[in-house]
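To: structure subgroup
Subject: Chain for Friday's discussion

All,

I'm putting the inputs and outputs inline so they're searchable in the archive.
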Amino acid sequence: MSNMKPTTKCGLVLEGGAMRGLFSAGVLDVFLENGIAFDGLAGVSAGAAFGCNLKSGQAGRVLRYNKRYCRNWRYCSWRSLLLTGDMFGADFCYRKLPDELDPFDKAAFDANPMAFWLVCTDVIAGKPVYHRCDKAGGDTMKWMRASASMPLVSSVVGIGGGRYLDGAVTDSIPLEFMERTGYGRNVVVLTQPDGYVKTPHPLQWLMKLVYGKYPALVKASETRHVLYNAQTEYVRKRAGEGAALVILPERPLPITRITHDPVLVQATYDVGRRTAEKHLEQVKAFLHA
């Protein structure tokens, strides 16, 4: 009986945080290297953009292209924002990079049965949208881009009849979504240390100015810190009840949301690896309990 596969579906929840997501990339590479698999994954912003490499089985890819291109203005820069409307260049990040410069293994992504969910914010409704990507073709890269399109430094992304921005505005840590969807045991990877408390957006006045025609988005942004802090409390509660296992840095990461320093890229990734290695046996026991 001890060798039977658990009947409870196991999920993985990945917070965003832009370049702080390199911590998560380090964690995921350790998972890949040790054969740790999940039934489903929900990623937000960088959690989605980096987390897709778990489904494609490409350990090392996130670190590789971030170190190689973090100083390239087309990847991320104020110049890109001025010229294209996106600080993280949409064409470079979501076409040229995955198709040509450091190919994303779409066939492996498609073949992996793990469900892959990403979170975007519907700017008109001011609500989260949970989009499941089973295949890497079609509009998948648009959805990835939308999930990671941070307000004020990104264009609103149109997909079908909808308009979307960063999922973190309305659901930074989609643990409750995963539980509602049927994942009874979840590993949650956060990019802020325990005890972190989010404060109101310091540029909320600019949000009102820029997104005045999207009042529901502005309202969601005003209360984002309240929701985030409630979500971290919920994660702690579920961890205490044995339904979640949390992996997070022990102290603030040595990187900001935006960086052009490959040394900091490597250092943040390394923190993620060390943290995952420290909790590796605990993760294995949790997933097979």
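Points worth raising on Friday:
The radius of gyration is 18 Å.
The chain has 13 helices and eight strands.

D.
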